[in-house]
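Researcher: Here's a chain I'd like modeled. Treat it as a single chain, no partners, no ligands.
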Amino acid sequence: MKLRHDFDPDSSLWDLIADHLRNDRESRGLSQDAVGGVIDRTRSLVSRVESGHTRLQAFHAAKIDAAWNTGGLYGRLVKFAKSGHDPQWFKAHEEFQAKSDEVRIWETSWVPGLFQTPEYASAVFECYGLSGIDKLVEARMKRQALLSRDPWPLVWAYVYQDVIESPVGGSEVMRAQLARLLELAEQPNITIRILPRSVGATVGRDGAFMLMATAKEEQAYTEASAGGRLTADSADVSSLRVKFARIGDHALPVDASLRLIRETMEKFQ
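Model: Modeled as a single isolated chain. Structure tokens:
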């Protein structure tokens, strides 16, 4: 498989891991099939890792370290890569989201970007003092093409009650935004549920995240104050999948959620 077009071991620790894995394998005279046998996966996955299209997972790194007696090198590299900032995270997030078949969203602060109206999105960008807001809004609206893609992706969104009650952009903007949520909720592939404030302490209060899946892979995006983090590590993804389910245990049913959105919309006069 060809290297990812922006593959750069000098600026990305993940790409350095991929490059080192390929060089290490070749110096040992091993095929990609042989490495696949070590990690109990196919040659195709090894090829995707070495070309930078898929990241080496922690439990695969541990198997390679044990088989090649590296002293834990790959495990340490993956650990450092996961904890560091990846300058390409947002582009990778966009690309994977666009091809996802399933999207699960938990949001604590804003209406999810996939659901935002242009006016609401503009108000969000303005509060951060960003420049070139028109282009940012245009880019966000283009990403929403995912919702009307053929075939439709399945989307589940859990939203904290404060999100629908906070007057972002003013009353008129909020009425239009809440109306947009109700419109989207009519689509058979989109589920929107509200987590009421009355539930008190819940596992989701520590931050928003998104789970995205294709037929072959699942990734998770978590928000952070200085930029998001994208991971395909199975342990991280599994942990967030459990968290999403636990948030759903306390979210209002669909009918009650939509009723609360309608009632809130009427308050923005």
